[in-house]
Amino acid sequence: MDPSIAPASRAAAVTPSDTAIVGARALYIGTAGDVAIAPRRDMDPVVFKSVPAGTILPVHAAIVALTGTTASNIIALF
Question: What is the pTM of this model?
Fold first, then answer.
């Protein structure tokens, strides 16, 4: 199977940070809120507003920024 479309094989809790590299293929949002994601570390974050609890965001997240993120219990999927 093409690794770019294979299901996640690892997961880790995310602590939002404006500088820490996460490198997730997708994010699970445990508690609703806004999620600020930079797809690459050299890009400014984009804020996904009002993400419901239980959502899986199928986006590459190099950084889950502290600034702009109000959601919590975020899990990175790799």
Answer: 0.92
